[in-house]
Amino acid sequence: MKFNRRIRQLVVAGAALTALAVVAACGGGSDNSGSGSSGSATTGSVDAVDAALKAGGTITYWTWTPSAEAQVKAFMAQYPNIKVNLVNAGTGNDHYTKLQNAIKAGSGAPDVAQIEYQALPQFALPGSLVDLNQYGFSQYESAYTASTWAAVHAGNGLYGLPQDSGPMALFYNKQVFDKYGIAVPKTWDEYIAAAKKLHAANPKAYITNDSGDAGFTTSMIWQAGGQPFKADGKNVTINLQDDGSKKWTSTWNQLVEGGLVSQIPGWTDEWFKALGDGTIATLPTGAWMPGVMESSVKAGAGKWAVAPMPTYDGQPATAENGGSTESVLKQSANPALAAAFVRWLNHDEGVKPFLASGGFPATTADLKDPAFVDKASTYFGGQKINQVLTGAADSVVKGWSYLPYELYANSIYGDTVGKSYQSKSDLNTGLKAWQDALVAYGNQQGFQVNG
Amino acid sequence: MSTSTATLTPATATSTTTTRKKKTGTSPLRPKRSPLLTGVMVLYLIYTLVPLLWLFISATKTQNDLLSSPGLWFGKSFAFFTNIKDTLTYNDGIFLRWLGNTVLYVVVGAGGATLLATAAGYGLAKYAFAGRRAVFAVLLGAVAVPGTALAVPTFLMFSNLGLTNTVWAIIIPSLVSPFGLYLMWVYATDAVPVELLEAARIDGAGEVRIFFTVALRLLAPGIVTTLLFAVVSTWNNYFLPLIMLSKPNLYPLTVGLTQWSNQATGVGAHPIYNLVITGSLLTIVPLVVAFLLLQRFWQSGLSAGSVK
Amino acid sequence: MAESVAAGRVTARKRRVHKDAKGWVFVGPFLAVFALTFLAPIGYAIYLSLFREQAFFGGNVFVGLDNYVEAIQDSKFWDAFGRVLVFLIVQVPIMLILALLAALAIDSLRLHAAGFFRIVIFLPYAVPGVVAVLMWGYIYGNNFGLAADLNDLFGTTAIQPLSSHWMLPSIANIVTWEFVGYNMLIFYSALRTVPGELYEAAAIDGAGTFRTIRAVKLPALRGAIVIATIFSIIGSFQLFNEPNILRTLAPNVITTYYTPNMYAYNLSFAGQQFNYSATIAIVMGIITAIIAYVVQLRGSREAL
Fold it and tell me: Which positions carry the signal peptide feature in this UniProt record (chain A) (predicted)?
């Protein structure tokens, strides 16, 4: 009976609790809070940031960067009066979903959050981030590469300091190349020839994998000199049939239509396997790749090497692929302290622990540091890979910008361009469909889109 | 698993169990065991087991072996115990913390869900109060709306209530199992004879007391089924905690393991598939234990359902 | 004789209910929590579905039923709906029949090691979704996986589980694998409530195994079959997890509007089109509820 009574008490307590909650829900549920852009415009300067560091306090930092733990530890050792709550709230889209929900709810967002360059405008434009110009952070421009400095801007605002960069280079499996007598391609024409030769010699091997990836496509259009996305406030222009885009498709179509690229999606265990056993012979990708290969493609040790990206005319040109910044959220109760932390992370002492974890810098001083540039990599057979990679950082094509709603754009890429990949047919058809969908979406969301 | 392997081979099983089985002949109550039926079921068993076998074999491999050895056979090294140790100690033993959270969510959430569903199912089956039809219609209508699409409205509501990032954001929604209610409704209809309730009423027992002393016992097999489903669905609850929680020390196992799995993606990728797989295997073990503990209630169900 | 016993039970059922508002005592607590976690968000979603808000510039406009008109004319929505309808018509009967046979087999006492079968068939339901990607990635993988091994074995390239033609059957296979055990347990535990006298009566009557199944077991399973069917219909219309898992393996085959639920989800999470997403969810809910209700009415003998 004692047991029964306890259950009854539980039931009664539960009922009371839920009744309470229902009442509260009716009060709160119908309140349709706005987009959370009403944060007050805090004014400040570098002095304010320094003062905040002295005053101390507590901030929350959302990131999935592997080096974050070491960085936060070092920061708190240096500033014992500051507590940083480090939270891994998810990777990529999970992280953005939570961020967007917290912004919409009006509370629960962190003070500082990692945001990839491509996603920055989507958070900056609706006014969810703090413009760091007010803290005089524009003075740090010379510390960073031109392309990453451009990437942390949206409109005239400065919404973070660059954490890393990803100038693209050609990673290739030298062992496979040697085995089939393939020379390292300098132009995309040579690359296609290499693809044919390899696949003919070994039908199970492919020059690279590409099952359709928005980040890769946009970077490749960037390298070809395309500028498909232009935004000025509410006015957006989309042209995925500009000269650069067509230049890329006329090359890449040959690989896709000819079935010369493997359809293994990136970042799956099959992909890691294929990188190790020679199934995938090259990867045109960001300079952060060596760290990934060393930790995750152990079977490839000693086999891989790095060369500059193939180009259309043989002259050096490349694009950025990937990379993140840390931004201060409008919801932050202590934006000056949050800004101070960002500065420490990506400008001051935080950079070293980041590089130690295998990250590729965005800071020019580190890109020029001989200790970094001339370091021989055991994984890459003793090659001084950073000479190639820092060289790439110098030849990034200028003038690129992402869409203000790039995250959405990437999410529907598979529905449109992915169809072309799947049917191994003209990528232009897919790009046009992508463009149409993006124009329609933009207009629905209140942009004035031409395209 | 060791207990089940003993009964795995049918030949030995027959010879040892014949002593337990007193009845002979083809009586429908104690029929002969059929090798043919067992054979057909073994085929189905293989279909069920192949993916699980992959999971088990993979849990014995190092991260490197996972990428270099065939899926359904062992790798160079047998790293099963190293994997378990690494899973339990990785990142300061966060796995154990997630395990603890999951147990909390399951005990309170699934336990509460079973209690609420049992009471409600019984109430709907045995009382002809006004609005019974409406309850049914509302229930069916609400369950038919896809929940994933309601995640954002639910999140905003819970956020206004200050419930996000607390254990209540997980526990309160887990307390509702429309499926459990449905199940208990059907069971109560059949398994609780009205004569018994009338008899208890004549004895002067109150309705709540009748429920706890008379009905609960008769409903045992149904309750166990409902509890089992509630336990598994709370144990596997992924989407809701993913949306509601942004504090890793509140995560349940599912969200935590996904976070580990996502380490294989993007800049700074560092896959730990071996820990994800071993962690998943460890996640299944408590469910197997729960199943084995609960299943004896089905055995007693036969006699519990009969009325003198 | 056995049939008349069963029939007697049915007539007895009609007298079973106790006319008393005290029933609310039992139903109330459930409904309170249900109201908070199901009804309130749905109410909110209905409210949202009447507005249109721009994710970037705010500006919430009341649009009446415009979103519903748009949804009804949305070819992506109907594309997704058609797909789950096909899935429902083919997969649900296969799954339920397998589950029914498994339950009858385990309950028949004719099976060796019945307890072992019972737990193993149920186990797939317990596998966490995160590892399902790796697991099915292996089984369906036509580069290094089981599919590749089978292709090598037969010297073909015919087995392409992740290609667009195979995708729906591949998803159906996963759902069947996961949920046969689930439904089997529903049926099995219903069989456990059959009173022993019914079997004795059937035995005295000289009924064989199949006659006992038809006359005693199937009638006893009626309620369980109806619930299993209803929840399978709802599950099919809400298909989400399995295609979402396979999407990481075949991003181009599975579109963001592969199923209605995925469509609603992606509208909301990727596109921040909360209003239209809520509309799709409500429309889908109405269609699902109507079909489920019809099944309930046809399936259950007692008029609720």
Answer: 1-24
